[in-house]
Amino acid sequence: MNTSQKHPWSWVPSLYFAEGLPYAFVMLVSVIMYKKLGLTNTEIALYTSWLYLPWVIKPLWSPIVDILRTKRFWIVTMQILIGAGLAGVAFTIPSSDPLKYTMAFFWLLAFSSATHDIAADGFYMHALSTHDQSWMIGIRNTFYRFAILFGQGLLVMFAGKLEIWTGSVTTAWSVTFGILAGLFIIFSIYHRWMLPHPPSDQTHPDPILSEAVQNFINVFISFFKKPKIGFIIIFILLYRFGEAQLVKIAPLFMLDSFEAGGLGLTTTEYGFAYGTLGMIMLTLGGIAGGFVVAKHGLKTWIVWMALAMKLPDLIYVFMAGTQPESYLLINIFIAIEQFGYGFGFTAYLLYMMMVSDGEHKTAHYAICTGFMALGMMIPGMFSGALQESMGYYPFFIWVMVATIPGLILIKFLPIDSNFGKKR
Questions:
Q1: Are 346 and 305 in contact (CB under 8 A)?
Q2: Around 115, how many Cα atoms within 13 Å sit in the side-chain half-sphere?
Q3: Contact 185, 83 (CB under 8 A)
Q4: What confidence tier does 422 reach under pLDDT thresholds 50, 70, 90?
Q5: Can you give the residue range of the structural domain that contains 36?
Q6: Does residue 421 form part of some domain?
Q7: What digits encode the pLDDT tens for the residues 123-161?
């Protein structure tokens, strides 16, 4: 088979699983690990939220990815660097100052992962037609989120079991990250062989620095000249304003004791809750979101998908108010929330693709995701201090209030009525 004609199923799932994993390690698994190492909620939320910064500023080097070498080259190279960063975390967890040294390697992971995102998202748009992008968006989103849940779920379960077997938190997490380093070497080998060679994914011949700088400036100017760009940027920043706070605190709420207002789950129980029903329902939600947009178009479904993503957050208000002891009930609640998230987040990704479509689509999409990361970083930084000052129940009520601005802004967005629909 010609490598330029390889079926999307042979590389889209694995590519976006590999894209989601480092994000899960840096932004989510680190939260659990530092909680087990004894940091406070305020410290955890602040330190780990700073790790969003590479995703915020990645548009600054996205033109370099566009100009130097192919997207395919960057994908394989960054997967090797991610493996090296994971190995560094594994070796420094047992050190005398694990926070200081592991954070250094988490920063390497974050920058490598952000660069990988630029290349992978650009490659996706180069290698697939507009309709195929819409059709595969549910699969892409599902495997990205599957990677997130793999990190939150199966990986955390594995670390929890190792904590019991070894009797040491540091040994358990060090072994876990060491295994992940090996996994990313395998990813780099697989994608070196399996990724197609789309004709439009080309290296710019003999790039000149002055031309690169001018191109960099032109790319940014062209993005900010888009119609209603102000509303678009505000929407990207605020659409996940509530979730940005929820995602940092929800794991801590699950792990905290009943006396502290949490649910008192063990590391293994938390991992299982996100790795079973939650994983299945998220997959179904992502596929359903991609299907309805491919059939009817983004404009028809965006409001309903946004509501489906945000309303299930009420579950956390209920759980914080009642602190249910039924582990089965907790799993069901997580499953409902994850289905809504998978369904609704598809619209968010597709909207950013619509905004980015055209010349410089790779760099423009990187700018969009940079604003998205900023919208996650800033609220996440103060979420820990806010929760510790308010308590879990009032905090989750506040999260629901924080979802409202993103919903209101949908009314003012320019949306192509045919985007994503089969023509």
A1: yes
A2: 21
A3: yes
A4: low
A5: 7-198+207-412
A6: no
A7: 887 777 776 777 777 788 778 878 887 887 889 999 999
